[in-house]
Amino acid sequence: MAYRVLVVDDHKILRDGIMAILERNDEFRVVGEAETGSQAVKLCEKLKPDLVLMDLGLSGMNGIEATAEIIRRHAGTKVIILTMYDDENSVVAAFRAGVRGFLSKTASSAELLDALRIVSQGGSYLSSEASEHLLSRIQRGDLAIKRVPGPIETLSPREQQVLRLIADGKTTKDVADTLDLSSQTVRSYRKTLMKKIGVTNVAGLTQVALAAGLTTLGKLGQKPKS
Q: 163-167 long-range CB contacts below 8 Å, 24 or more apart?
């Protein structure tokens, strides 16, 4: 039985190349593709892939945040980072988030397939560059990482207020009344929030707010209002 793979990258041409490599190998079957972290989380909920090939430099919810959320929700899904960002901080942050593999986009197709095989069978895979970075940090006794602000932390206090209310299921009029704003201003905030976070609808905003702990309403089964 082929392992089910979700490919996540913000460049369509790279996703197509990766999928072409996998589709030539009967050990793996591509079941979906995503260009943002929030899309990846949503597709994992729907598709339940065995493996996720995850880029780091995604808009909105970055690859580290998406990885942590996917693993939190689906412990059986294994994530492999495939990225151009193979600096020390990225490697350490990725493994702290729970990834099972890390390799550079400069890797050959043979190395990519090897990594997928090893991780799918319960092992872990580090590229030579990632291994060097980890070894260097361990030898220095320094595994601290510089934390990269998530999408929520880039929002102003007012934008976070609006996001929290939207995620709590409030209508545009409810938000306007609560914050003493016009409905037009609230709609403008909502549009800005979607652009900053990298989603296209209220459900996406709610998902990010839930992941960041801004609201628990969605966990209780209540749906956001448009």
A: 163/193, 163/205, 163/208, 163/209, 163/214, 164/209, 164/214, 164/215, 166/190, 166/193, 166/202, 166/205, 166/206, 166/209, 166/224, 167/205, 167/206, 167/209, 167/210, 167/214, 167/215, 167/217, 167/218, 167/224
Tell me the mean pLDDT in the region 166-181: 91
Pick the CATH number of 3-140 from 3.30.1490.20, 3.40.50.2300, 3.90.420.10, 3.90.950.10: 3.40.50.2300
Looking at the domain that runs over 152-220, which CATH code has it been given?
1.10.10.10
pLDDT above 50: residue 71? yes
pLDDT digit string, tens, across residues 21-58: 999 999 999 999 999 999 999 999 999 999 999 999 88
b (16+ CB within 10 A) / e for 186-203: beebbeebbebbbbeebe
Judged against a pLDDT cut of 70, whether residue 109 lies above it is answered with yes
